């Protein structure tokens, strides 16, 4: 991607800030990507691609705007673009998925984390996405609204329904385990 002829390159100070902010966001981007795609290797590839796209488009970043939301939007858009392509080409084998995706936890805390992640992944996609952005990646409501293109009330509503959904799913699993 070539810079537009009238786009001014970032100043050296702004470029240093850009690099620092990008590196600092890697863990949060990785966590969000893992929550979206449920595959560590694919998530790492997704983060790397988002960072490469951000770097290639650094000339389009407006100094003083929300860098964090800009990066999360790049990652999210890349994920959904790829998901549309994968949906056309992927063959789902339920038996293979059960063998591959099921992993026994080795300690109790791992069980609890697995239970929570399983519950999160059972939520509707929009609730899961907002929950991962706000509770998982630590974005503010405003940043999550910018990333998803939803208004503030929608973000708060989806987050509230997502939290309630996870709680209900976890309580339902505990009740069925006791019975």
Question: How many strands?
Answer: 0
Number of helical segments?
9
Catalogue the unreliable spans: 1-5
For the termini, the CA-CA separation is 59 Å
For the largest beta-sheet, the strand count, sense and barrel status come to: none
This entry's quaternary arrangement is single chain
The helix/strand series, from N terminus to C terminus, equals HHHHHHHHH
> Please, what is the average pLDDT?
82
Class derived from helix and strand content: mainly alpha
Indicate the radius of gyration in whole angstroms: 19 Å
Sheet-strand content, in percent, reads: under 5%
Helix content: over 70%
Describe the 3D structure.
The structure is a single chain. This protein starts with 11 loop residues before the first helix and ends with a helix. By secondary structure, it is an all-alpha fold. Helix 2 packs across helix 3 (40-56) and helix 4 (67-89) crosses helix 8. Helices cover 75% and strands 0% of the residues. The relative contact order is 0.10. The chain is globular and about 55 Å long. The longest helix is centred in the C-terminal third of the chain and has 27 residues, at 152-178. It contains nine helices and no strands. It has helices spanning 12-24, 26-37, 40-56, 67-89, 94-101, 108-122, 125-136, 141-148, 152-178.
């Amino acid at each position: 991607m070539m810079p537009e002829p009238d786009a001014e390159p970032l100043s050296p100070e702004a470029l240093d800030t850009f690099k620092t902010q990008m590196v600092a966001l890697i863990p949060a981007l990785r966590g969000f990507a893992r929550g979206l795609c449920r595959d560590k290797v694919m998530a790492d590839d997704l983060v790397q691609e988002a960072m490469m796209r951000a770097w290639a488009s650094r000339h389009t970043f407006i100094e003083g705007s929300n860098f964090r939301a800009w990066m999360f939007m790049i990652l999210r858009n890349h994920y959904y673009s790829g998901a549309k392509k994968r949906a056309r080409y992927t063959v789902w084998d339920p038996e293979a998925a059960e063998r591959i995706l099921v992993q026994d936890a080795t300690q109790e805390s791992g069980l609890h984390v697995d239970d929570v992640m399983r519950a999160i992944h059972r939520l509707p996609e929009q609730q899961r996405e907002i929950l991962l952005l706000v509770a998982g990646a630590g974005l503010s409501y405003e940043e999550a609204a910018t990333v998803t293109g939803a208004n503030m009330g929608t973000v708060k509503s989806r987050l509230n329904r997502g939290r309630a959904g996870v709680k209900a799913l976890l309580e339902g699993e505990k009740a069925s385990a006791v019975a």
